[in-house]
Design brief:
The complex is a heterodimer of chains A (about 140) and B (about 240). In chain A, about 30% of the residues lie in helices and about 30% in strands. Chain A is an alpha+beta fold. Chain A folds into 2 domains: about 1-35; about 35-140, OB fold (Dihydrolipoamide Acetyltransferase, E2P) (Beta Barrel). The radius of gyration of chain A is 22 Å and the shape is extended. Chain B has about 240 residues and is mostly helical. Chain B has 9 helices and 2 strands. In chain B, helix 2 (about 10-45) packs antiparallel against helix 8 (about 200-230), helix 3 (about 55-85) packs antiparallel against helix 4 and helix 4 (about 85-120) packs antiparallel against helix 5 (about 125-145). The chains are: A alpha+beta (about 140), B mainly alpha (about 240). Chains A and B meet through helix 1, strand 6 and helix 3 of A and helix 3, helix 6 and helix 7 of B.
Chain lengths: ~140, ~240
């Protein structure tokens, strides 16, 4: 091998080694790299029940109730759902049908949240287009 | 052909040619940035959910793209420098790092400012945000390592190895929103999908290209300084100083 090929091999080994390290690391971390659990994962017992964890899903339409700062709503992934109780200020994007991530713990089937974050999707459009899309869907 | 490339990459030729390119790069940047800002702030519509806050995207996303682009460029230049021992490649890698770090910082800050009103938090430790923060640390590590040696040759080689190993973080950042549940939403722009209105996309692209030209100009300016410093004992630099 020439010196240049030797150096190419070194670079290839550096990249290969780096990838190996990261793959092993991610394997070891497993589901800890997920930021939140879905209602189904919680129902299947994959979430650390008894400790604080994050639960994410869509706010069920028609489930949102609030009294002063105390809010109650359901979070679903269309397979399972949990009722969330939260006292505090909700983010601007919070509404029924919207994705949310809540932090808290399960107390007798109800999820008592200490934090509610709103998630939004990767679709960006003007209100007019969004309306038009909605109408198009409901006409079908 | 190989000889020709090496001649072109010689410090002296680079110094003369880059001087002619830089003003054009800056002019194109200014033009694209102006049109891009007009498109982003006036032509593009407000979002149906986020309202005018969505306009942070026109800085946030191009800056984040630049942070990845410049890192890949540093790693490739480092590999070229290591394998074919081209001094200029090491110089390009070295001078690009602070610019890349600045874009990474800009992406993180604008993301934070966007996250507070929309998500309800300045920062979360989800996969996308965390891996982008690691990228900033990688840039910093690369810069420190490059400055930790007195001998520029040793510095270039050591930091090149770091840059090449660090490239594994790039696909992690890019795919983080697909591989794991994260607060950050998925990509709006992929190989065969654009999930935003066309005027938003145009603004995004204009600023994105503006940033590319800004980077090119800044990189060349910094590279010229670096070349002068490294070649200060060579004949052509001495002649240059005499002439001025």
């Amino acid at each position: 091998m020439t010196k240049r090929q030797n150096r190419m091999l070194l670079v290839a080994m550096l990249i290969g080694g780096g990838i190996l390290v990261v793959v092993l690391l991610l394997q070891a971390l497993g589901s800890n790299t997920n930021y939140f659990y879905s209602p189904t994962e919680v129902a299947e017992g994959k979430a650390p029940i008894g400790r604080s964890f994050r639960l994410g899903g869509l706010v069920t339409v028609g489930s949102f109730k609030r009294e002063d700062l105390k809010a109650t709503f359901d979070v679903t992934d269309y397979k399972n759902k949990f009722t969330i109780q939260y006292t505090g200020i909700l983010p601007d994007l919070f509404k029924e049908g919207q994705g949310v991530i809540t932090t808290g713990s399960l107390v007798g089937g109800t999820f008592i949240a200490t934090e509610v974050l709103a998630k939004h999707d990767e679709n960006y459009m003007s209100p007019e287009v969004a309306d038009a899309l909605k109408k198009g869907k409901s006409n079908k | 052909m190989w000889k020709w490339i090496q001649a072109f990459a010689s410090p002296q030729n680079f110094y003369t040619i880059s001087a002619k390119i830089i003003p054009w790069m800056l002019a194109v940047f200014a033009l694209l940035a102006l049109v891009g800002l007009y498109w982003g702030l006036i032509v593009a519509p407000a979002d149906y959910q986020q309202g005018d806050s969505v306009r942070i995207m026109f800085v946030h996303v191009p800056a984040a793209w630049m942070s990845l682009f410049i890192y890949v460029l540093i790693a490739v230049a480092s590999a070229i420098g290591l394998i074919w021992q081209i001094k200029l490649a090491f110089i390009v890698a070295k001078v690009s790092a602070p610019i890349g770090a600045a874009f990474t910082f800009l992406a993180l800050i604008t993301g934070s400012i966007w996250g507070k009103p929309m998500w309800g938090t300045w920062w979360v430790w989800d996969a996308r945000l965390t891996s982008e923060l690691i990228l900033l640390f990688l840039y910093w590590a690369y810069m420190s390592l490059n400055n930790a040696f007195d001998n520029p040759k040793t510095a270039s080689k050591a930091s090149a190895i770091l840059a090449i190993v660090g490239i594994v973080n790039i696909p992690i950042i890019y795919y983080s929103v697909e591989w794991w549940n994260s607060l950050h939403q998925g990509s709006s722009i992929g190989v065969n999908k654009i999930s935003m209105q066309i005027d938003m996309f145009v603004a995004l692209m204009l600023i994105s290209f503006a940033f590319k030209f800004l980077y090119a100009a800044l990189m060349l300016m910094r590279a010229r300084n670096e070349v002068l410093e490294r070649e200060q004992n060579s004949g052509w630099v001495k002649a240059l100083i005499k002439d001025n």
